[in-house]
């Protein structure tokens, strides 16, 4: 079996295993009594795409680094999340969430200029909207300080666009155009954090989420590579309310 096919199969099996675990927890949550503790949590922070050494091989962002004056870190941007959570006993919590991230990165060609000496300018824009299902484990229960860790699965709705001025390398002419790809793809999540209850209903905390997902942008759509790596690290502060 080719190495890439084996990696895809392993990733798919891992995602299915996590999905089964999350599904079991969500079923348990739906069957929980009405008095089970529920909460809504808002998160605000930063999403950072995976760095060069950990991105997939046929990633369009990685390939663009050779031609354009950009870095992967230029795509770091603000993120916003919201989740509804249901407690399952003292040590488990199941949740459904929605997030939003978007960043526009201005760019120029690294080694080419217009005939008049001006820069050849373009923009790269990435938007990701993950819908997630997660399970959190609270090893010390619902104490005064609540560290936790968990796993989850998600469906990642995304849009990637390159627009502005580009070079036709068959004759080195410069033209204006826009290249757009969209998709919705599955992925997995590993998370961890800590929260502090405040009063009877509120909580504050910090959380890290590592996301793993990929999409297909398509060479036929004018991009320099066929895929895009959507994975990365989301770090955020959280505000929760229990009801």
Written account of the structure:
The protein is mainly beta and 243 residues long. The chain has helices at 3-30, 60-64, and strands spanning 38-49, 77-88, 92-113, 119-137, 146-168, 173-198, 202-216, 227-229, 232-242. The chain has one domain (42-242): Porin (Beta Barrel). Helices cover 14% and strands 59% of the residues. Strands 1-2-3-4-5-6-7-9 form an 8-stranded antiparallel β-barrel. The longest helix is centred in the first third of the chain and has 28 residues, at 3-30. The chain is elongated, with a radius of gyration of 21 Å.
Average predicted local confidence, pLDDT:
90
The CATH class label is Mainly Beta
Q: Give the termini distance in whole angstroms.
A: 51 Å
Gross morphology is elongated
Tally of individual domains: 1
Query: Could you give the order of strands across the largest sheet?
Result: 1-2-3-4-5-6-7-9
CATH topology: Porin
Number of helices: 2
Which residues form runs of ≥5 with pLDDT under 50?
Answer: 1-15
Q: Tell me the total number of β-strands.
A: 9
Helix amount, in percent?
Answer: 10-25%
**Measured on Cα atoms, how large is the radius of gyration?**
21 Å
Q: Estimate the strand proportion.
A: over 45%
CATH architecture: Beta Barrel
How do the helices and strands follow one another from N- to C-terminus?
HEHEEEEEEEE
Sketch the major β-sheet. Answer: 8 strands, antiparallel, barrel
Which structural class fits the helix and strand makeup? Answer: mainly beta
């Amino acid at each position: 079996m080719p190495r890439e096919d084996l990696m895809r199969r392993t990733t798919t099996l891992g995602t299915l295993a996590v999905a089964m675990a999350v599904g079991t927890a969500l079923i348990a949550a739906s069957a929980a009594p009405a008095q089970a503790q529920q909460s809504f949590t808002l998160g605000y922070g930063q999403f950072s795409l995976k760095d060069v050494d950990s991105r997939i091989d046929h990633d369009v962002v990685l390939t663009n680094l050779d031609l354009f004056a950009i870095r992967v870190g230029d795509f770091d941007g603000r993120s916003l999340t919201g989740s509804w959570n249901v407690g399952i006993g003292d040590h488990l919590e199941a949740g459904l969430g929605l997030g939003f991230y978007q960043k526009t990165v201005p760019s120029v060609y690294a080694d080419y200029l217009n005939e008049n000496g001006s820069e050849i300018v373009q923009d790269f824009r990435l938007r990701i909207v993950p819908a997630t299902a997660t399970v959190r484990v609270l090893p010390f229960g619902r104490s005064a300080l609540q560290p936790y860790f968990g796993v989850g699965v998600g469906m990642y709705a995304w849009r990637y666009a390159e627009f502005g001025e580009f070079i036709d390398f068959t004759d080195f002419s410069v033209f204006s155009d826009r290249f757009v790809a969209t998709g919705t793809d599955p992925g997995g999540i590993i998370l961890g954090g800590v929260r502090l209850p405040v009063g009877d209903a509120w909580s504050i905390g910090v959380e890290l989420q590592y996301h793993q997902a990929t999409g297909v942008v398509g060479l036929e759509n004018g991009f320099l590579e066929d895929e895009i790596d959507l994975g990365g690290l989301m770090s955020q502060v959280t505000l929760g309310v229990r009801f």
